[in-house]
Write a structure and sequence with these properties.
about 400 residues; alpha/beta; 7-stranded mixed beta sheet; binds pyridoxal-5'-phosphate
Length: about 400
């Protein structure tokens, strides 16, 4: 694969930061955008913009069609059964909140159990916490081991007749573990328990097939998939969308409104209230085309190579502790350096143009479990190369020098 040519499609890399070329290793946070995505948004506003799903003039119909094309591409990308199973949200956080709120209202009562894990991002805990407060439900946490994995037996142990939903990450944004979702779905389906997957880190880096995975809900943030901000996707099996109530009320999501009663259409309309992030959803179609052009299998192969090289290089430095050592791992390396606060690491790396993230990465429970309050995190995208890892390693050595560690 010609990574140089792929990278050249991203205008951000033409700029210098602190006088240095950009080494962007903050992809788990958000990825950079190829020119086609940026141009598509500009073209939409210049030539095609209208609000969608309302007016009948030519512009409105064209804009609606362009928007719906993104839904079709997303359906294809994750191999959903029907386009009605793709709901646009503003991010994965909203997608998870949608499920916690609607499924929670309808199916969760006092004493019912919600099974999550110690790996979860706050986006896949706080919405369940709200439900715990509102309904008196109980949240059970499947424990994470020292390798940064949650063992399937740990999940099995916690499933019982009170379990009403399992909500679990596909790929941890801290340890990088890839969870065995299909096995978890198989376990859950024996007891007819729905499974929600937080696919924020799965969707940009793994080949997805909803028919094979079998989960009931899958939450995605498109800005981590080389797409615009403000776009998320909730995949939900149609059987749920037919029975769950609407999430937010307003224009665009009703069938008939009377003084005494209101009726609602089917999905996705029922779940997409108000004016949507039209230009961003249209722009996102170019992100999916970009991923398709490169090929998700090629992306996986390339990132695996860089990840392995990265782990090998970073492990050479004895002052570095890598957080977790999962057997199945995606392109994320979280680490600490003895005697240096992660924020200081990130600041020193930034001087060399190396952009990483430092903090708890919205996973305080996991950090506490690992005995730390924060970590530094390098996370890969398709444009990263072994040179970027070399830059990271030498910037880490600079940290050692500055702090005398
Ligand atoms: C695993 C995981 N879940 C959920 C989220 C939340 O994504 P967003 O802020 O785009 O809703 C993130 C973002 O970092 C994440 O990494």
């Amino acid at each position: 694969m010609d990574i140089k040519s792929i990278k050249s499609q991203f205008p951000i890399f033409k700029n210098k930061f602190n006088g240095k070329p950009l080494i962007y290793l903050d992809n788990a946070n958000s990825s950079q955008k190829p020119k086609n995505v940026i141009d598509r948004i500009s073209k939409f506003y210049s030539k095609e913009f209208s609000n969608i799903g309302r007016s009948v003039h030519t512009l409105a119909v064209t804009a609606t069609n362009r928007f719906e094309e993104s839904r079709d591409l997303m359906k294809k990308y994750i191999n959903a059964k029907s386009r009605e199973e793709i709901i646009f949200t503003k991010n994965a956080t909203e997608a998870i909140n949608l499920v916690a709120s609607t499924y929670g209202d309808k199916f969760i009562n006092r004493g019912d159990e919600i099974l999550i894990t110690e790996l979860e991002h706050h986006a896949n805990y706080v919405p369940w916490h709200f439900l715990r407060q509102k309904k008196g439900a109980i949240i059970k946490f499947a424990k994470c081991n020292d390798r940064g994995e949650v063992d399937i037996d740990e999940i099995k142990k916690l499933i019982n007749n009170k379990t009403k939903i399992i909500a679990i990450t596909h790929l941890s944004n801290v340890t990088g573990v890839i969870m065995p979702i299909k096995k978890i779905v198989d376990l859950a389906s024996e007891k007819k328990i729905p499974v929600l997957v937080d696919g924020c880190q799965g969707a940009p880096h793994l080949k997805l097939d909803m028919q094979e995975l079998g989960c009931d809900f899958y939450a995605i943030s498109c800005h981590k998939m080389y797409g615009p901000t403000g776009v998320g996707v909730l995949y939900a099996k149609k059987k749920w969308l037919d029975v769950l109530p609407p999430y937010q009320g307003g224009g665009g999501m009703i069938e008939e409104v009377k003084k005494e009663s209101i009726t609602f259409p089917g999905s996705p309309t029922k779940y997409e209230a108000g004016t949507l992030q039209t230009a961003e959803v249209v722009g996102f179609s170019e992100s999916l085309k970009f991923i398709e052009d490169v090929g998700i299998k090629n992306i996986m192969q390339h990132e695996k190579e860089i990840l392995e090289y990265g782990l090998e290089e970073i492990k050479k430095n004895n002052s570095v502790r890598i957080i977790g050592d999962p057997k199945h791992r995606g392109s994320i390396i979280s680490f600490t350096i003895k005697g240096i606060h992660p924020h200081d690491i990130a600041t020193i790396l930034d001087e060399d143009g190396v952009a990483i993230r430092a903090g708890h990465h919205c996973c305080q429970i996991l950090h506490e479990k690992m005995g730390i309050s924060a970590s530094a995190r390098a996370s890969l995208g398709i444009y990263n190369s072994k040179d970027d890892i070399d830059a990271l390693s030498s910037a880490i050595k600079k940290c050692n020098k500055v702090f005398n560690t």
